[in-house]
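Researcher: We are triaging several targets before committing to wet-lab work. For this one, the compound of interest is nicotinamide-adenine-dinucleotide. I'm pasting the protein sequence and the ligand SMILES. What I need is the predicted three-dimensional arrangement of the protein with the ligand bound, expressed as structure tokens, so it can go straight into our comparison scripts without reformatting.
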Amino acid sequence: MSNLQAITQQLFDLSGKVAAITGAARGIGAQTARTLASAGAAVAVLDVSASGEELAAEIVAAGGKAYFWKLDVTQEAEVQRVFAEIVARFGRLDALVNNAGIEGANVPTHQMSLEQWRAVMDVNVTGVFLCTKYAIPALQQAGGGSVVNVSSMYGLVGGPDVPAYHASKGAVRLMAKTDAMLYAAQDIRANSVHPGFIRTPLLEEAFQKLGDPELIFGQMKQMVPIGKIGDPQDIAAGILYLVSPAGRYVTGTELVIDGGYTAR
Ligand SMILES: NC(=O)c1ccc[n+]([C@@H]2O[C@H](COP(=O)([O-])OP(=O)(O)OC[C@H]3O[C@@H](n4cnc5c(N)ncnc54)[C@H](O)[C@@H]3O)[C@@H](O)[C@H]2O)c1
């Protein structure tokens, strides 16, 4: 029995590893930070919101390793400095989870301003580029690693809303595939994760603007074959798989976690 348990433990063991997670103050990023820390990784909690400090403290209080850096992923000098500080503090970097993302303006394409378009592209695409750019040398130094771009099921299929968001999520899917090929020989893997409807502050805030969030969550459930709204843990589990030894042969792929929405 104990040998059997060792198989699972080794598959998901991140002891001695270091993972950086952007947009980790809340939602999917926060649960990913808890999950990777529970597998033994030291986690760099990165967020433009200072509340990431509380999450890092929570993980440390629970016996894990974490440190918070206030980081706006759109600012190259900040990204460069923070990734250097992560390596200086924890000694290495093994994984990057590009999770920070915003939904942006919900207006049709012909009414969207260039400023609205750029605001979404800056965070969701340029932010992924910048963090990957400054993480790769550290992953190379570590002898390999894993990059996970958090896309969306709406990076695979279209929807009649938030056009810049959909475009941005399509972009990071392909960025993962390109990086997968660029760095495969150095054992750096890159994949994308495609969440469906997940109950996080992002969706709650978006639905607050539209009316009664509970009513909208109820309507959304009916669009999902599995009949439920997802939980941040459902996505964090997929990210854990891609970051850990269990996913060591997985690169350039897309992990869809959407309750069957895109299976139609
Ligand atoms: N919730 C869903 O249903 C859903 C579905 C598909 C994809 N996603 C994607 O998952 C990721 C996380 O979403 P969530 O629902 O947890 O969102 P959220 O809004 O709850 O959390 C996003 C976090 O990103 C941070 N952030 C925003 N701009 C930033 C910047 N410039 N620099 C650093 N941090 C920044 C925010 O402060 C916040 O803490 C996003 O990329 C989102 O597009 C979410």
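Researcher: Any quick observations?
Model: Residues 22-23, 25-29, 47-49, 71-74, 99-102, 123, 127, 150, 152, 195, 197-198, 200-203 surround nicotinamide-adenine-dinucleotide (CB under 6 Å).
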